[in-house]
Write a structure and sequence with these properties.
about 425 residues, alpha/beta, Rossmann fold, Dihydrodipicolinate Reductase, domain 2, Alpha-Beta Plaits, 3 domains, 11-stranded mixed β-sheet, 17 strands, binds L-homoserine
Length: about 425
């Protein structure tokens, strides 16, 4: 007996899921023996459905009809957004239906409530497509690495930001120009602030942090900084230091706490993550038994994301009515570490008037706060022009670096706020 699937929303990802369910059930059967059948599509915008052959599939403008359909055992929520999607998922779970979603924002904000509803009703809530699109990272953490303590996760989880930073790096383009191109290519969120201010990555970071450590990490405890203040100057200085700038989600266990943070980082060109270009995503995991593992692929796009959604549907079909696995285990209640406690190396770009004693005063302030300089770049400029002094610190404590930068920015010869970027 095939498992019946209902798809709510036939937009980019929903359309891709419909395509795969209409075209690739044979390959799924060959690999698993499972029969998966598209039974129902709910979409208000009828014009979106004209490209599909939906003979034998019920079509409704109302998602409630789909949830109530006895032929639907798995409901795919692919409308995005928070309010309506949350209501629909809760309705489906309460109706005893399994749910598959790609909705990272909803999971990051309401994952706990949804997980409790799934457990209460003994059904699955699956979300492989919510983090890193087509990369099976949820499966890797829940299955392949299940026997490991995960020490650290470093993720490039936003295609738009990686695309923008790649083109700034390799083509010397400016931020605004490449953002427009990312939007035209269709992988930027609406509004793009969700991408470029780091929030989309923070949603994915929250999911990974909670999953890796079996502990609920509140979204508001994920530190987040985007890429809007990264300039071509920083990209160029980073390269001079043998690094690229990437927006990373970092999840680490440090002194019994969870670090969950999203911000741009200088990544050495020799690191595997430095080779991840354009809209591609990658996740690098360090764990106690498996050691280092790397996962790479498309984090967005119609069929890549839909492929991950269908993999969840097939997992549910293969389970064949066995006990549901909880989407998240909140076994522990681990504190989230304050960003001020972070220890690392820091790139600082100062903008200063060029006159005698400037470097001496800057070094004194850094020294007073216990921040030691590892290297320094300063280029000659035309008389009267401000000069950039670029410093890389030795390993330092973030709160000390921040205090030093605040003091430096108060010095009378400093002409613009100092740029601070953490280094891997
Ligand atoms: N806007 C997201 C990105 C889509 O650029 O990666 C996938 O979550």
């Amino acid at each position: 007996m095939p498992i019946g699937v209902g798809v709510i929303g036939a937009g980019t990802v929903g359309g891709g899921v419909i395509d795969i369910l209409l075209a690739n059930t044979g390959v799924i059967r060959d690999k698993t023996g499972a029969e998966v059948a598209l039974k129902h599509v709910a979409e208000l915008r009828q014009e979106l459905l004209s490209d599909f052959d939906l003979s034998g599939v019920r079509v409704s403008p109302d998602a409630a009809d789909l949830i109530a359909d006895p032929e639907v055992q798995v409901v795919c929520e692919l409308i995005g957004g928070v309010k309506a999607a949350r209501t629909l998922i809760l309705q489906a779970l309460e109706a005893g239906k399994h749910v598959v979603t790609a909705n990272k924002m909803l999971l990051a904000m309401h994952g706990r409530e949804l997980a409790e509803a799934a457990a209460r009703n003994g059904v699955e809530l699956r979300y492989e497509a919510a983090v890193a699109g087509t990369i099976p990272i949820i499966k890797a953490i829940r299955e392949g690495l299940v026997a490991n303590h995960i020490h650290a996760v470093y993720g490039i989880l936003n295609g738009t930001c990686n695309y923008i930073l790649s083109r700034m790096t390799y083509e010397g383009k400016e931020f605004d120009e490449v953002l427009k191109q990312a939007q035209a290519l269709g992988f930027a969120e609406t509004p793009p602030d969700l991408d470029v201010e780091g929030h989309d990555t923070a949603h994915k970071c929250q999911i990974l942090a909670s999953l890796c450590h079996s502990s609920y990490v509140p979204l508001e405890r994920v530190y987040v900084e985007g890429i809007t203040r990264i300039t071509h100057l920083d990209v160029a200085y980073a390269r001079e230091m043998g690094c690229l700038i990437k927006l990373l989600a970092v999840v680490r266990r440090v002194e019994g706490e969870i670090e969950a943070r999203v911000h741009p980082m200088l990544v050495p060109e020799t690191h595997l993550l430095a080779s991840v270009r354009n809209e591609f995503n990658a996740v690098y995991i360090e764990s106690d038994c498996a050691d280092a593992t790397l996962y790479y692929g498309r984090g967005a796009g119609r069929l890549p994301t839909a492929s991950a959604v269908v993999s969840d549907i097939v997992d549910i079909a293969v389970r064949g009515g066995g006990p549901a696995r909880a989407p998240f285990q909140y076994t522990h209640d681990i504190p989230v570490r304050d960003i001020g406690l972070l220890e690392g190396r820091y790139y600082l770009r100062l903008t200063t008037r060029d006159h005698p004693g400037v470097l001496g005063k800057v070094c004194t302030v850094l020294g007073t706060h216990g921040v030691s300089i590892a290297s320094c770049i300063q280029k000659d400029t035309a008389p009267g022009e401000p000069v950039h002094v670029v410093l890389m610190t030795h390993e330092s404590v973030e709160s000390s670096v921040a205090a030093a930068v605040a003091e430096i920015d108060g010095l009378e010869f400093i002409e613009a706020p100092t740029q601070l970027i953490r280094a891997l």
